[in-house]
Protein 1
Amino acid sequence: MSTGSGKSFGGTIGRTIKDSKPWWPQARKPPAGAPNILIVLFDDVGFSDFGCYGSRIRTPTIDRLAAEGLRYTGFHTTAMCSTTRAALLTGRNHHSVGVGCLANFDSGYPGYRGKIAKEAGTLAEMLRGHGYRNYMVGKWHVTPLTESGATGPFDGWPLGRGFDRFYGFLDAETDQFAPELVADNAHVDPPGTYETGYHLTSDLIDQSIRFIADHLADRPDLPWLTWVALGACHAPHQAPVDLIKGYDAMFSHGWDVEREQRMAKQKALGVVPQETRLPNRNDGVKAWEDHSGDERRVFTRLQSAFAGMLDHADQHLARLIAFLDQAGVRDNTLVIVMSDNGASQEGGPLGFINAMGPFNFRPEPMPVKVSRIDDIGGPDTHSNFPHGWAMASNTPLRRYKQNTHGGGIRDPFVMCWPDRIKARGELRHQFVHACDLVPTLLDLVGIEAPSALAGVPQMPIEGVSFAPSITNAAAPSKGSAQYFEMFGHRGLWKDGWKAVAFHPSGTPFENDKWELFHLDRDFSEVDDLAAKQPERLAAMIEQWWAEAEKHNVLPLDDRFGPRFAENATRFHGERSRFTFHAGMGHVPTDVAPDVRSRSYTIEAFVEIEAGAEGVLIAHGDATSGYSLYLKDGYLVHDLNIGGGHEIVRSDRKVTAGAHRLGLHVERLVRKEPPAKGARTGVSEYTLLIDGEPAGSMQTQFGFNTLISWSGLDIGRDRGSPVSHYDAPFEFTGKLSRVTVTMHDDQKLDGDGVGTAEMARQ
């Protein structure tokens, strides 16, 4: 096609467009026989929780996949969710790619940016260049939450890291009945409610089926990667009530008997060696029989909620597997089911029915727990089980998520591929790490990691393929050492040995006690050989420091609260005023006004007619948050702390016409930082109509450490309702804008913030 001047449109003299090569990058054809890949990533599920790993929780779908494929008993993660995801996605160690800890904060050091570096391409980015289409469903949590708002930036969201479609959530957790959802690059409302039977797990499986079905309709000739990261079984533990209650009888015998039963089954299955010994209870966990009858009832129901959530997830996973069968694609689909870390210790020694209250110093004593036992797992709870049940989940391993002992980093891993894995129901005992997954999948697909992606030179893959073990049970474990670190807890595996140190937060690192275990002979880490082999231990500690230097682990930082508080301060900076205009979308909690432990003023600019009502601004959900709304002609503010409602109602009705309706909160006492674990003092909440006081209250309750993990809306309350109305309770007048002005008197309890944030992870 000529311009008439002897030049083509491309500016090449004497050539036509059909002769020119396209300037855009061209995907290679997929290798012959390249499999579809389905990765199912559970959250906070312990080593023994799947039925095929020792528990009696009903997981027939996962058990069937294991019977048709392989189970690995030496699969290791990184002790936390963001970090394991970074390693699984990139094939590199998590510190190396900038996610040394959590996506919730950026410490500024190369290993702790909270976002995967561009030099560390994801599996999706690598597969895309070979014809794959990539679909991400569920939990992401590898981009800073301060970048989760309407303006992004989106380069760290799934579509910015190689996925073609995304449906899920960006944070560490979300309410299963009223989740914080994102579709591609936009926040969206859930398609249902608790009252209509909605549950996030069902929705995520529906979307997974939708993405694959659309793919098969459009490009059945191309392989696909579908990454399904479920919210189960991270807190809040939420599931259908009948399913939850149905597990009470199974667990009424308590965690001590449960551990014994699980290890006996593990030995019968061959999951652990016959000589494996059950460790003593974790520090601080009492014998089941030492608890009162009321405590045992509550603890049993909290464990039943966890079990019901896992059972429920397995039931819906069955629908996805059945769809692959129905569509005729399962034989050439590599299915992997695993967990991101061990069971969680964030429920504390007594567990929670609604953790949001205690995080803001509204206690939840045992009589309150007993009175709410039938609410556990429902829409107005944020339930988590106690340490004893987390310990049982991790049977026969020590400690929990966050820790580098086995209970934090050794997890179930099931692999099934009917076309290629002919060893049905077999076990593999090789040491495998999360960063080894990508090189293994590249081997199985038949491609190599690229040296550059989008013009960015790539860092080397650090994991080692364990593909040889798929066909050869006797294949050796990888020859390189593998380090571990999380919040100062440290470890190193090498040649079947493990050195590990538990780090008490706030103590000098040089005081940590290192232990030495021969994992090949001591699965449960009970026989400490440090005193018998000091030279081996010293050499492994020295190598740990070398690995730490190599992979950007340093400087070690065991601070919880200060890192979260510093990140919030750095993000908000000098900003003290937010303006939200009518027509805006949902605001995630990490980019909403930070009204914790400070004075602030809210004003809504409205025009109303007689009978107008509805929400002006709401941040949070039924478990925690605040809402300013008009009801029955009165202006109302609800301070919801852990489901307890501190309500102030205007002393007069709001007349028809244009008004400024607002609230002023004034911290009255304790301008100095509060003592650890103490409230920040009394605050006064004053309603305002056109700037004039219209009723007030004083309360010792407030947002000391968090507002909510659900976000903010104006003109409606989109999720589970913060106050006593039916969501969304949309405002029926005319709302033009809402302003939030924050005053410069914030005094945060860093340790309290850290405790609350860690429960979120």
Note: The mean pLDDT is 93.
Protein 2
Amino acid sequence: MFLPKRYASAQITWTGIFCFLVLLLFASHFYLERIAYLDLAMHVFDFLINDKLFIQNKRFVAAATQIWPLLGFRTGLPLDAVLRLYSLAFVGYYFAVFLISAYLFRNEHVALAVPLLFTLLISNTFYWAQSEFPQALAALLLYYAGVSKLAPLPYNWRTLLLLLLIPVGIYGHPLLLLPFTFLWGYDYLLNRRFTDWLYYLTLLIAVFCYWLRNHDIAATSYEGQRMNLWENLVQFYPNYFTLAGNTELLQLCQTRYYMFPVLLIVITSYYAWRRPAGWGARLAWIWAFTIGYAEVVVITHPEHTDITYLENLYLPLGLCVAIPLTMEVLPSFRWPRLAVGLLLVVFGLRLIAIWQAHVPYSRYTHWLDSTLAYTRQFPEQKFIIDQANLDPQHQRIVSWASPYESLLLSARHSPDSTRQLFVTNDVPALVGSAIPQDAVATPWGPPLSYRALPWQYMRPQPSSYRTLNTPPPADTAALATYMQERRDTQLKFVAISAPLRANKLRLLTLRITPPAAKVLHSGLHTPYPTVFTYRYFSSENWPQAAEVLTTPLEIDVEKEWTQDVPIIGPHEPGNYVLEVVLTSQNYHDWPVKLRIPIEAKP
């Protein structure tokens, strides 16, 4: 039989449409931060080279998003348009699951769980969009939107089509069996499927697919190395709840994922107050999965500190609140406008959080774009940068994929503008690898010949690699002369839009202009590297207490160059003079200084 899964007012469902329209706007605006970054930059490059889907570890669910940029290239769309299309494809896929669930399956309850799932515990992962886990979760919710409306499950073609979604989801990520089990158990208790024998079969199919998946994928693969639950269960027994990951998750729930505990309390209060039939078992199931799943992530990643990756793994916790909220709590509201108001508040707050998370990603994209523009003064088209020179205070996001990212960012303007920046921790090894002039280096594998690049999108000219971090003189006598010749170097802040904060880190943008025909060398592998430092002076012209950071030049400066310099405010609020100095570390300051009055607030 068909179960009613419609809300009393269509406006409740419309809030989900509003959420996805905003997410589509974000995906279009931040398309470079999302696509010309990390794995997706490599995926796009692979599409260009091999003209086929880039499916890893048999995670076939990724085809739902990869097909669109591939079709874009095959139809000759401009590279910039394909990058934007790929960014929209992810949100578009989730939006399609929402629309099919709400208007084809007529299950508005599960449909509304889709935008909740993709906002409640999402901030950084919006910009790290490549993971197959959320894509598999979307397939799981599409399956559940069909199954939860049928009780008992009929033996017909409709059920067969839904069952085909189970292996798609399970193969999408090794952890997907757990959220599948949560939904299976929750619906088993909610709809009392005690004699629904076909429903039992769905769980057996999921377990079999999980077993088959583990036997299909080599133990030496990436995910085989990451999912080490059983070994860690033995290693950390019985101290699971004392692992540092538990404290980190609680801190994240207080700062980033604050709506998750709030809604969990709302759902718990609803069950305790309204006491619907079977409420105790469902509440126990929700809390058991919340704690159990969180511990699985903590135990399998006891020392993992990458917030973005952990956020991706914690996504299924959103189901613990999204499903009971949309299936039971919202339908119980006597006045639908209250439900609409609650959802608009939740979506609004989470969308703001997603917007705010763009800052380090946008900084990185802007830096990469600016550096590419700076290199156009040189005859070479391929460049090497030392990772040690970049962002010592980690105010930008870190990436291993700069060879791919820079090729895409430069070629999107014109095929003839293609350039490559290779950021590496081992400059000597890359320099000594003797890469041919008509080839580009890649993070893994041999150099890629220009002949393999699609000429309609990338047409770099033969070129050697130029190192953008060369050292200043290592001899103090030569260094003194070197500094004196560059005494006319000009420093200027681009803008200081707001007061500093006492003891708080702030990025200030500094413009560096060297004297004509003089290069400021930025290499750090020398006894006396060139860095920026700073100090504060009060009205007595005496240095004031402050934590002082040193920041290296990011690249060799031959013409005007702009870079961010991290500065920590003085210990005490007040009015000061900030002095920024260019110095040869372990030697002495240059005769190059910038002094400006600043205000430090508490």
Note: The two ends are 64 Å apart (CA to CA).
